[in-house]
Specification:
Phosphorylase Kinase, domain 1; Rossmann fold; Dimethylsulfoxide Reductase, domain 2; seven-stranded mixed beta sheet; 29 helices; binds ligand MGD; binds iron/sulfur cluster; binds molybdenum atom; BFD-like_2Fe2S-bd_dom_sf; iron-sulfur; 4Fe-4S
């Protein structure tokens, strides 16, 4: 069968890289970076480059499934029955309880056309503003920041500015992990011009710091104080642009008065940094010919998220560093189409075309365009309020699409209660495995990456055409098509006899209807169409019909999107995070991304290769914090916050400051029993953006006394076995699940309990992983509750189960990985202890270079032999493909290399 190539985009982050999908018309075979796409020019990161290895069919939602009553299980149904049922329940709920008794919770990963249909459905047909998206957890503080300072929600810069800037401030962004291809572009530019200055502001020393001339490890949540302290110094030194301030801005005097209080001594103390470092930062910013800032969740996910955004933009306005090459405030968007969501009005307070739901004129404009009498004026619920409304019973029918709130929202206990009690929950998902799907009364299978068509806007306002390469599996359908099918049925109840508002047959047609709503607005892309993007390539808005071209940079003329064309300084004092350290909860928990995983891992969690870098949930703490508590790496701790408790192993990490802890956000209840990372985090939110404070929750930890341990490694059928074993393990106190093995994927489980579980559980697990038959070595010491099971087929281990004590687990993994079951293994097997044979390494290794499969131990050995980065690249091949591992290799070199 002939191989074809379809140009599309990566479905992960907001860099929006172009990918070439290699396929045979039926299956995706490979992906490559698209050299013609301006975002990445052919590059991909470790996640983009492995797209074709993810999305296991065994995890896909294939057919609509309906549950006819709580407590019953769902059964397969057809689209016609599913849609009629949904329209009937929504129609009845609206009739009985009014339009605000239903709600839609959607996602920054939908395509622009999907969003448009959802918005039209909620606001024009149902008549509610209860439509919000996971961008509330992500970008809503940036939306408020841009609007307050500049008048419109528009990042003014281009990716080229990253390469062209003389001084970059990276605040609360770990772009080495989260926006890797942009980080590669910055690395290359800095290598070409080492005079470029980079400042990183992050309480953790992340891999992004590998490129920094200055890292300010501020106390969590103190960014506003820092930015005001920097402005104080810029004023003192005369490093501001008075002409620009005079001609193009308002309200500077108020801010000048406020920042007088942020003297270097006070700022340094509030932020926990040295005055020298503060002076250095101000000097770099104040004396640079061009100054660009990049920021992400370290600023947005905060109860002071809006204030942080505006305090940073203040620095650009005060120095006149905006609208010029290499300058400007440039927020990095998280999700691939969070920008499209903002454009189409997919937050409860917005309307399409950067309009406001709270603005009567805006409502009238959109209502007229849609041909309806009016749009609802009631204030819609934002994500946190929406789920509180579900729990309190105010929301009686909830539609969730393309997001997994039972993993990603803070305060998971409340979210799970809400979903369990909601009378009717629709989940529109590509993978049936997510935590949220468990609560679906109606599960609607959605087409996913490579299978659907539409448009997305990336961080630099660039709109790409997302193309489908293969058909969706089973009965899965594109999101827009599901929405329109439902809407046409609901119209029969709510607008009988009137022409349909949802008579769309293609995404291009939806785009053409929608784009007119951007005409005359700041983002105007009414001049674009799918066909034009195909001809011209991806384009940056604004792009209107008259100019017929995209716009690389906004505000070059010094005219801003406010009523009088002036940008506005925002003067708000520093306010501490909601939760700070206290006697009861003495640590601040920070959460964020890993390099190779994506959010709740519905996609990346199906590829064993992507667990090579980090394979299980670990709580990272500074070595001093472990020492103080007599904890060793791998020990299980009970982590508690004001909202919940979680058991998981600790790891020592000197990149985390004492008094702080870090837990990746990816682990949900499937991978980490106990509702996952977000059982600990708090729902407190910023008063304006309503974005929750996901980066700072206070916690305590205590050693978890769980003497009975379980370790399982089982090769083959990983997805199926994962789904079968996970629900069996509810009785265990700790349960961490993962995958390992690149060429021979295996399921990996570590668990523990206060007392041994029922033997029936172990028997069930044995059956599921094939330890009940075939060539299995068995050792049982009932008195000490030690059990060993090892299956050896063709001279190699294929399955292991240790119970009671699991001291040999890392060593056994190594033996499994080596592919040879030797005599030493048999001797260990017969010994009455679990500990690995004397002298054998029990260290856990990890894969640093995912592309070339190079482990940390190989790289460390190379460094000890005196190899530098180039030497390692030549000898081991690491870092020569996507480059995602290069910052970490550099860090190892600087920590291990013996000075010559
Ligand atoms: N690999 C990978 N990449 C992704 C994603 C993914 O899941 N995996 N998700 C995408 C999405 S949706 C998003 S939103 C982005 C997120 O991208 P980032 O925001 O870059 O990633 P995070 O790890 O969430 O957080 C960034 C940093 O904020 C720091 N931080 C915590 N508190 C503070 C503070 O008070 N002040 C400052 N200055 N910094 C603080 C954390 O230590 C962390 O290093 O990533 C996108 N890219
Ligand atoms: N503690 C903590 N929590 C956080 C964060 C944090 O930093 N710390 N970050 C927050 C941020 S910034 C974000 S963006 C959120 C992300 O949180 P979520 O939105 O919950 O993240 P995903 O797991 O990406 O959810 C997307 C879902 O859509 C499904 N899907 C994929 N393709 C399609 C499709 O084409 N159609 C449909 N219908 N479904 C599809 C996927 O299988 C997946 O389950 O998490 C937030 N939660
Ligand atoms: S940087 Fe990586 S994850 Fe982000 S769009 Fe590009 S390839 Fe995808
Ligand atoms: Mo995000």
């Amino acid at each position: 069968m002939s191989t074809q190539s379809t140009a599309s985009t990566c479905c992960y982050c907001g860099v929006g890289c172009g990918v070439l999908i290699e396929h045979d018309g039926k299956r995706v075979l490979d992906v490559a970076g698209d050299p013609a796409h301006p975002a990445n020019l052919g590059r991909l990161c470790s996640k983009g480059a492995t797209l074709h290895k993810t999305g296991d069919l065994a995890a896909r939602a294939l057919y609509p499934e309906l549950r006819l009553g709580k407590g019953l299980s769902r059964s397969r149904t057809d689209w016609d029955s599913a849609m009629s049922h949904a329209a009937e329940v929504f129609g009845r709920t609206i009739a009985e309880h009014g339009p605000d008794s239903v709600a839609f919770y959607i996602s920054g990963q939908l395509l622009t056309e999907d969003y448009y249909c959802f918005n039209k459905l909620a606001r024009a047909l149902v008549g509610t503003n209860n439509i919000d998206s996971n961008s509330r957890l992500c970008m809503s503080s940036a939306v408020v920041g841009y609007k307050r300072s500049l008048g419109a929600d528009a990042p003014p810069c281009s990716y080229e500015d990253i390469e062209q800037s003389d001084c970059l401030l990276i605040a609360g962004s770990n772009m080495a992990f989260a926006h890797p291809v942009l980080f590669r572009r910055l690395e290359a530019a800095k290598a070409a011009d080492p005079s470029k200055r980079v400042i990183v502001i992050d309480p953790r020393r992340t891999d992004t710091c590998e490129i920094a001339d200055l890292h300010l490890a501020i106390e969590p949540g103190t960014d506003v104080a820092l930015f005001h302290g920097i402005l104080h110094l810029l004023l003192w030194e005369g490093w501001i642009d008075r002409d620009f301030i005079e001609a193009h801005t308002d309200r500077f005097d108020q801010l000048k008065t406020l920042v007088r209080d942020y003297s270097p001594a006070i700022t340094a103390q509030l932020c926990g940094i040295s005055e020298d470092d503060l002076h250095s930062a101000a000097r770099m910013i104040g004396t640079a010919p061009s100054f660009l800032s990049l920021w992400c969740m370290g600023l947005n996910q905060s109860s002071a998220g809006s204030a942080k955004n505006n305090a940073l933009i203040n620095l650009h306005l005060a120095t006149g560093q905006i609208g010029k090459v290499g300058s400007g405030p440039f927020s990095l968007t998280g999700q691939p189409n969070a920008m499209g969501g903002r454009e189409t009005g997919s937050l409860s307070n917005l309307l399409p075309g950067h309009r406001e739901a709270g603005n009567a004129e805006h409502r009238a404009e959109v209502a007229e365009y849609w041909g309806v009498d009016a749009l609802p004026a009631n204030v819609g619920l934002s994500a946190i309020e929406l789920f509180e409304g579900v729990r309190s019973g105010r929301i009686k029918a909830l539609w969730i699409a393309c997001t997994n709130p039972a993993q990603s929202m803070p305060n998971q206990t409340l979210i799970h209660e809400a979903l369990a009690t909601c009378p009717f929950v629709i989940v529109q998902e590509a993978f049936f495995t997510t935590e949220t799907c468990r609560y679906a009364d109606l599960l609607l299978p959605a087409a996913s990456w490579g299978e659907k068509e539409g448009t997305v806007t990336n961080s630099e306002r660039r709109i790409s055409h997302v193309r489908s390469a293969v058909a969706a599996p089973g009965d899965a359908r594109p999101d827009w098509a599901i929405v329109c099918d439902f809407a046409r049925r609901l119209e029969k109840q709510l607008r009988p006899g009137q022409p349909s508002l949802f008579d769309f047959t293609s995404p291009a047609q939806i785009f053409d209807e929608y784009k007119a709503l951007t005409a005359g607005r700041d983002l105007d892309y009414s001049g674009l169409s799918h066909a034009l993007i195909d001809t011209l390539g991806p384009q940056q808005w604004p792009f209107n019909a008259e100019t017929g071209q995209g716009t690389a940079r906004l505000y070059s003329d010094g005219i801003f999107a406010t009523d009088n064309g002036h940008a506005r300084f925002v003067a708000e004092p520093y306010r501490a995070a909601q939760e700070t350290r206290d006697a009861q909860f003495p640590l601040i928990l920070n959460t964020g991304r890993l390099r190779d995983h994506w959010h709740g891992m519905s996609r990346t969690g199906t590829a064993a290769q992507l667990f090579g870098h980090v394979e299980q949930a670990l709580l990272s703490l500074h070595p001093d914090e472990l020492r103080r508590r007599n904890l060793n790496e791998g020990d299980l701790v009970r982590v508690s916050s004001r909202r919940g408790e979680l058991i998981l192993p600790v790891e020592s990490d000197a990149q985390i400051s004492p008094g702080q802890a870090f837990l990746p956000m990816h682990w949900g209840d499937r991978f980490l029993k106990g509702l996952g990372s977000n059982v600990l985090t708090q729902p407190a939110f910023d008063p304006l953006s309503k974005q929750p404070e996901l980066k700072q929750s206070s916690i305590n930890i205590a050693h978890a006394e769980l003497p009975w341990e379980l370790f399982i490694l089982a090769e083959g059928r990983v997805q199926e076995r994962f789904e079968a074993i996970r629900p069996l393990c509810e009785s265990l106190d700790y349960l961490g699940m993962g995958l390992i093995g690149r060429d021979r994927p295996a399921l990996l489980i570590r668990a523990a309990a206060a007392t041994p579980p029922d033997t029936a559980l172990l028997a069930q697990i044995d059956t599921l992983i094939g330890l009940d038959n075939g060539p299995v070595l068995r050792y049982d010491d009932a008195g000490r509750a030690i059990g060993k099971r090892v299956k050896i087929e063709d001279g190699r281990i294929t399955a292991v189960r240790l119970t009671g004590e699991t001291a040999a687990r890392n060593w056994l993994r190594g033996v499994w990985q080596s592919g040879e079951a030797d005599a030493e293994l048999r001797r260990w097997f017969l010994a009455p202890v679990s500990a690995p044979p004397g002298g054998a390494s029990n260290q856990q290794d990890k894969t640093l270079c995912n592309c070339m499969n190079v482990s940390q131990s190989q790289i460390c050995a190379g460094i000890e032999r005196g190899l530098n980065l180039d030497g390692l690249k030549q000898e081991l091949g690491c870092g020569t493909q996507c480059g995602s591992c290069v910052p970490e290799i550099k860090r190892l070199i600087s920590s291990l290399a013996v000075p010559a």
